[in-house]
Amino acid sequence: MTNLDEVAPNIFRVQGTHVNMVILRDGDALTLIDGGYPGDVGAAESAIRALGRRPEDVQGLLLTHAHIDHMGAVADFHERYGIPVYTDPIEVAHLRRDYLEQATGKDFVPMLHRHGVLPWLLRIARAGATKKISVRDGLAFPATGLDLPGAPVPVATHGHTSGHTAFHLPQHGVVVTGDALVTAHPLSKISGPQLLPPVFDHGHGDTAAALDHLAVLDADIILPGHGPALTMPVADAVARAQERSSAH
Ligand SMILES: [Zn+2]
């Protein structure tokens, strides 16, 4: 199964279209963190079936943030199976699409001459990047904490969107960073820990503050929204990303 790799015991990275989904397994039960593009639903489903499970075995759907490239299987599984969707209290309204904090086609026009931008746009369009989807009844993280397979702990990392969240998996020293910290992106020339190109961010400036919340976590495996998993103390990865973002 090429689109599925186990980055730590019972923690799986699933590759969608230039974007990652994460499966947490606890016995027969699963948690899905992020769901790729609408066109990545099949990839999510086949990864789950490769683990010998069914989408119905997912107990909860978690969203780092309500951008279309992370919502695909989350919205689909919610609709098809009634699995609850949880996200940050601030992000719930974004998920409903009361407003949209996402770059759209016109934001990329000034970049079209750059190498790789047009093929990337065409590829994500085929994956459903221009579809309009929402989840009307997403839930805010319970104040008492999440009780889901894999024991994910939300870490507020507001900035990329107003309610962006990372998820810490303390027993395995893993942090799912979403788009607060990535390791590669088709529009980035560098690999390794970095911020996304600024065109993707809603709240410029806050993305730097969000990194401070990651740096204090006890984690040495980074599982980002975009790019491969990285084994490195998260404080070091944050320091590298900060160096690089201040360099340009
Ligand atoms: Zn993203």
From TrEMBL:
Pfam entry (one): Lactamase_B
SUPFAM superfamilies named in the record: Metallo-hydrolase/oxidoreductase
InterPro entries xref list: Metallo-B-lactamas, NDM-1-like, RibonucZ/Hydroxyglut_hydro
Stretches assigned to coiled coil: none
Residues of the Metallo-beta-lactamase domain: 18-226
Top-rank taxon: Bacteria
SMART domains tied to this protein: Lactamase_B (SM00849)
Name of the protein: MBL fold metallo-hydrolase
Annotated organism of origin: Rhodococcus gannanensis
